[in-house]
Amino acid sequence: MANQGLRQQGRSSWPARLGLIVIGVVVSVAVVVYSTFYFGLIHGEEFSPTTFERRKFGYYEIPLVGFQVSPITHTDVTGTLEEFLVAKKSVPVDKDAQVRWDLVKASRGDLIASPGNAQILCNYFDTVDADDKKVWLVWAEKHVELSKLLWPAIANLARHELYIFIPELLELARQASTPTQFKKAIDQNLTKKYVELAQKQHSLGRHELAIELYSHVLDRSPHEINALQGRAESFDSLGKTKDAAADIALVRKIQLQETKDLTIP
Q: How far apart are CA 115 and CA 163, in angstroms?
């Protein structure tokens, strides 16, 4: 009789246990849904250095777990300056190139946005004057020839993720008087920046990246001795002795020509 009573008690407690399990599941689901809705929204903005377009993005993920539970939505927010530069072909756009998107800013819910490197450039895109006009759009419309030099250089920096170099170029643009003077200033500025960065990469053992940076300098200034010597050292570190010898030979040729030029009365 005692065993029968225990069996009956056990059977009668199952509905209660099941009810508790159901309540627990419902509460857990409710907590996940609530936290996802209020704290799981990831949203922000991206910039494409490939096409000079901007877009906003947003999606939901489960907080802490980081599991995405909704598709990513995109909204175009390209500004009038970017559209102007592309329309006027001040920025070269390769329609066949693979489009890359760099982070401008991102937020979770209502938290303060975390900036990305592309925000450096986008802040200039959005800068307005006292009349609420885009400062650099006005400048580009007023200085057509200077604009043809400035924006391709900025696009090249952005495409190599070197946004940190952009503010100095824009400051040079403010001070520029003629296209010839401005081009020289850009060349000098970028040569110095690229060589310094390449030297740092070489010292860190990142020789492939150093070679790429030195090559960017030489694309602009083929006879830049510091870049040739630095690239030769990086080639040599990778065991590419023929490439290193070619750069050193060019350095000697340039130095010989400079010596001859100095001795000619």
A: 13
pLDDT digit string, tens, across residues 35-78 = 445 456 788 999 999 999 999 998 877 765 556 667 889 999 99
User: Is the CB of residue 75 less than 8 Å from the CB of residue 68?
Assistant: no
135, 129 in Cβ contact below 8 A? yes
Contact 117, 123 (CB under 8 A): no
Per the structure block, which two tokens stand in for 256? 């010989």
Q: Which residues contact 175 (CB under 8 A, 6 or more apart)?
A: 185
| Residue linked to tokens 């296209």 | 179
Query: Poorest-confidence range of 67-81, 137-151, 165-179?
Result: 67-81
**Which residue do the tokens 């857990």 mark?**
28
Q: What percent of the chain has pLDDT over 90?
A: 65
- CB 55, CB 80: distance < 8 Å: no
Phi/psi of residue 108, nearest 5 degrees: -110, 115
CA 150/CA 88 separation, integer angstroms: 13
